[in-house]
Amino acid sequence: MHNQPPPPSSGGIQPPEAPGANSNNQLIYWDASIARNPSVPHFNDESRDPAGIWSVGGSTTVSLSGHQVALDDDTGFRSTLTRHFYADIDTTHTDIILIICAFVSGLVDGLAFNAWGSFASMQTGNAVFLALGVSGQPSRPEYRWAKSLISLATYMLSCITFIRVSRALGPRRRLTMVLSFGVQTALLFTAAMLIQCSVVSPEPEDLSAPMEWMQALPIALLAFQAGGQICASRTLGIEEIPTVVLTTLICDLLVDPQLLAKINYKRNRRAAAFLALFVGAMTAGGLTKITEMVASLWFAMGLKLGITIAWLVWKPAGRRKKDIEG
């Protein structure tokens, strides 16, 4: 008979035996620190090992429980984030957002008309300038009708784009509002940078000089963002604040049979929107006079950025009573 070699003094793995010697097909570990007699084999207890992908104790079973927790946490976070952005927003107090948008319209149109002789938001004025251009009037500035045409056409394209995207994503979803006002903020930023970097003249237009066609670029950008504003007022269901025009707003305000009532939210919204747009245009004129023309655009961009951030944390719409009962 051959003598079996003694195990290592510090513990280790026993050399493999001949096939059939160990019917359990398990690896045998030696642990001299816990066994009095090192010649007695010690079977490793896999319950001590942390969960993971490594098999222990000679078992071919692979544990995935450690990674499963991480996957569950990651899936839960993504699910929560998805629900957050796909939830409809609560329309309570969204009239405040639209009143701020009316102020932005005043800022933008005050700048656009003072600098380039056209409007970015109030397309009624652009339609009049375009119609006068058919007869070659006014003679100065030259090609004013062309800038008005660019603004009007861009505004129409904007309305089509914003409303179709809103319907595709869900008109009142948080994702829709963040995307809409994020795009508007980016357009204002781009227009401001064009003027800040002198790609477009930072000075008001000289009526006696030839038209600078680069002016059409910021006009188009500002008109496109204006379309997003009025689409937002429609999707939020607050039609008494169109944010870009005062003609119908003033009429609706004055013909309201409850004009002098103590509580009249629609009247209050219309009056606030009128004042906001008026003060916005005054602010644009004041900023142009005491500082640079581009200051109005930076101010408008900051307000739109604040609105975009507000949509990220806006309260979600509550469930309807019939949904809870059902």
UniProtKB/TrEMBL annotation:
The chain crosses the membrane at residues 96-116, 271-290, 296-314. Residues 1-22 are annotated as: Disordered. The keyword Transmembrane helix applies. The keyword Transmembrane helix applies. Pfam families: DUF1275. Keywords: Membrane, Transmembrane, Transmembrane helix. This is DUF1275 domain protein.
